[in-house]
Amino acid sequence: MECKLAVSLMHDYLDNDLSEPQQLELKKHLLECADCRNYFEKLQQTDMLLFSLTHHDTRPSDDLTDRIMAMIPKPKTQKRWVNWVRNHPAITAAALFLLVMFCSTLSLWNQGNQLVVKTDELEKLVIEGKTVIIPEGQTITGDITIENGKTKVYGQVDGNLTVIDGELFQASTAHISGQVKDIDKAMDWIWYKITSLFTDVAYR
How is the chain split among helix, strand and coil, in percent rounded to 5? Predict the structure, then answer.
C-alpha cells in the first residue's frame, strides 16, 4: 500500500468509516512504515484533543458570571430633583434667591443688640444709651428706622416710623403723619428687609 492511500485511510479509520479488510491493510502498512506510523500517532492525538474540547463544558460557572457582572460599572441614574431643576430654571433661581435672602437677613437678625438709627436728621434726636427721643416741639422730616432700642416720641414725624426689636412710646403731644411699624418678630423683620431692598432697587 502506498503512503498517500494509507494517509487517506487513516482519516476514514478515525471516523469509523473503514471496512474490516481495509482496517487490516492499514494496520499492516503501519507495522511496515515508520513514517506513516508516526503520522498516525500524531493524528490520533489531535483527534483525541479535538474530541475532548468539543465535549467539554465551556460555559462559565455561576460564580465567574457573578464576578464579571459585579465588575461591570452600573449606569449612573440621575436623581429626580436634578431633572426637575433642569426643567424649571426660573423657579430654581427664584427659590435660591429667596433662600439666600432668608439666610442673610436671619444672620443679620442674630448679629446682636447694637442700636441702629436711620434718618436724614439725626442731629434733631436725643440719644440716651439705647433710648432714642424725639423731643417735644421738634419736627423730623422723612422716615425714621430704629433698631434694638427704645423710642420715645414727644414731637412730630413727617414720615414713617419703624421700630425693630424695640419698644415704642408715643406721648400725647406726639404726631406721626406716616405709618408706624413696630416689628418684633423675626419673620416680620425679614419681610421688612426684603420689601425694603426691592423698594430701594425700584427708586434707584
Answer: 50, 20, 30
Residuewise pLDDT in 10s, the chain (204 residues)? 788 888 888 888 878 888 888 888 888 888 888 888 888 888 888 878 776 665 555 555 556 567 666 766 665 555 677 777 777 788 878 888 778 766 666 555 555 568 889 999 989 999 998 899 999 999 999 999 998 889 999 999 999 999 887 889 999 989 999 988 887 655 555 666 666 665 654 455
Instruction: Give CA–CA dist 181/75, Å, rounded.
Output: 58
Contact 148, 164 (CB under 8 A): yes
Q: How far apart are CA 150 and CA 86, in angstroms?
A: 49
Grid cell 441702629 in the structure block, residue: 116
Q: Which helix (H) or strand (E) holds 180?
A: strand 180-183
Distances in whole angstroms, Cα of residue 16 to Cα of each of 12, 62, 71: 6, 38, 47
C-alpha cell at 45: 492525538
165 near 189, Cβ under 8 Å?
A: yes
- Going by the DSSP 8-state scheme, the letter that residue 66 receives in this structure is H
All three cell numbers of 46, joined, read 489531535
Burial 181-197 (b: 16+ CB within 10 A, else e): eebeeeeebbebbeeee
